[in-house]
Amino acid sequence: MRAAHARARHQADPRRVFTDPLASKVLHLEPGALPPPPDDPVARHNIRFVAARSRFAEDSLAAAVTAGTRQAVVLGAGLDTFAYRNPHAGLTVFEVDHPDTQEWKRQQMAAAGIALPPSLAFAPTDFERDTLAEALDAAGLDRTRPAFFIWLGVTPYLTRDAVLATLRCVAEHTAPVHVVFDYYVEPSPSMAPELRAAYEAATRRVAEFGEPWLSHFTPDGIADELRAMKLDDIEDFTGPELLARYLGEPAPGGDTDAVTDADAFSGHVLRAGRTTAR
Fold first, then answer.
1. How does residue 266 score in pLDDT terms, banded at 50, 70 and 90?
2. Of 12, 176, 263, 277, which alpha carbon lies 20 to 30 A from 198's?
3. What is the DSSP string of 20-49?
4. Is the pLDDT of residue 147 over 70?
């Protein structure tokens, strides 16, 4: 819900980096009913980060489609809308999520008048208990053909073991494969006090919802894990770096300057893959 709200609110941002015309519809909200973009630079950064990570994932997928990929897997899909505005002819999209979440999403989509496209397949699974490979096989994923995985807004809520097990499942794809995912790093001792306060408040809030953050990684540590899995084509961006990629120079007043310490709070976005078959 938070990610969908962020994408919906971002549509009114004058420095929009990602377009999602379905974000407010899936929430059953009229665009005018959404709060205006926040004045607080950290909050504004985090909304833009949610939008930018989707932009990066979908741009990376588009490049893979150009190279011949015709299978996309959205892990922990939640209220992600890509499958319902998929612009790529011949691309099958597999949505992986908890069965209860998928049923709720179907209800949200039906109530919003958003049809399920024929290019969409559901693969219900629980990341902590079920075998992802079996769920994907049952949904019809072809392991002998290239695939692209998108995994956004999920890893912090899983244990480290569950995150690495999921990445190993991706890496075991026998054809060329890529994945885009985000992760958090531990807050540094030098983090600015206002950012640490925001981070700690967010930690408390998600814990109160029953969804605590369970895992953190370092850039070097996760890169080492991925290379050990033979996913050695790696790009890793901090939140500010990713926004700079799409926004260019910061606007007068310096959004980017205000959040250069915010990597741990907003997270990193990483693309990893293998361009050859196993």
1. low
2. 12
3. -TTHHHHTT--GGGSPPPPSSHHHHHHHHH
4. yes
